[in-house]
Amino acid sequence: MSQAPEPNPHHVSTWKFLVALVVVLALVGLGSWLAMRKAEKDYARRNDAPKGLGHAAPASKNPVSPAASNQNNHSWTNGMKWIPGGRFLMGSEEGQPDEKPVHEVTVDGFWMDTYEVTNAEFEKFVKATGYITIAERKPRQEDFPDAPPEALVPGSIVFTPPPGEVPLHNHMAWWRYVPGASWRRPEGPDSTIQGREQHPVVQVAWFDAMAYAKWAGKRLPTEAEWEFASRGGKEKLTYTWGNDKTPDGKWLANIWQGSFPNGNTLQDGHKLQSPVGTYAPNGYGLHDMAGNVWEWTGDWYMPDYYAKSPKLNPQGPQESYDPNEPGVWKRITRGGSYLCTEAYCWGYRPAMRMKTSPDTGLNHTGFRCVRNGPPAPNPPGK
Ligand SMILES: [Ca+2]
To answer: Which residues are CB-neighbours of 361 under 8 A, at least 6 positions away?
Structure first.
């Protein structure tokens, strides 16, 4: 399989979002988003939620789910698959430069959610804890002293296809900051998740995913765990199911068909997210490890990490650097989304690495969780 001809413009860089935000906000007279973003980036360098933007779970409102709090209650393995662990070849020689070198990695066994976390599951978490996601929070004036009050508007970033063809190096042509967009209203104030309860939750920042995982007694996967699991026990295949993108002409994941970003021919039947489990599972019984939505992992992004990462249970680098946007630390997302096409980001390959700042929600990004042993009494995939 040849390398996609375009440089990977889908490596979402926050500065481009930022410029888009400035344009949009300026148009409606809201002004200085720059100051907000700068403050968010400073906060995003830490693992803690950004002050005034992140975790809202009050300690008095059941911060940990009942199953998660009882170590003898193994009901938490419901909806999860045991990933046996082992040695594998991580990365790809056919993908982006940051997927190289292909290197041997060993991960211990772990449990992984069979599906991406759904809107229904995320709603349970929100109801139990009172958590408010970053996108839903009105930024506090004291955290952004330079921003005019009218600029402190909750919202998130939404895919907004342009009316015609555009150069693929310009993210601003299809990403927009939309006031009022959140996990409850993924495409903006006029959208809803009603009837989409089994769709993966989106518009959740990394901090939001971490809060959910903590409540569920789980954690986010490392990048290595995610890639190991996505390969389903198969060595060096281009896709989770093999090397042919559409065997027998059949679409095996919810991705993009046609010309990106304005000509989706919808051959797989899904314009946005699809209900989790719509497509067949991989070799470990996991659904949607390719396409549907990008999934947050716990690791920071460094483009050259593979050249020096530990061989056993790598946890990601201690710091982050994105040459496309120096100074903005980013977390790894994996798996591609309904917006991915081979001529563009080709993100639905197990080896593809994406990076996004941890304070950013997008309507093509969600997550799933993992948890450490004990191993399953039943064979993997059961
Ligand atoms: Ca699709």
So the answer is: 133, 134, 135, 156, 157, 181, 182, 183, 202, 203, 204, 205, 208
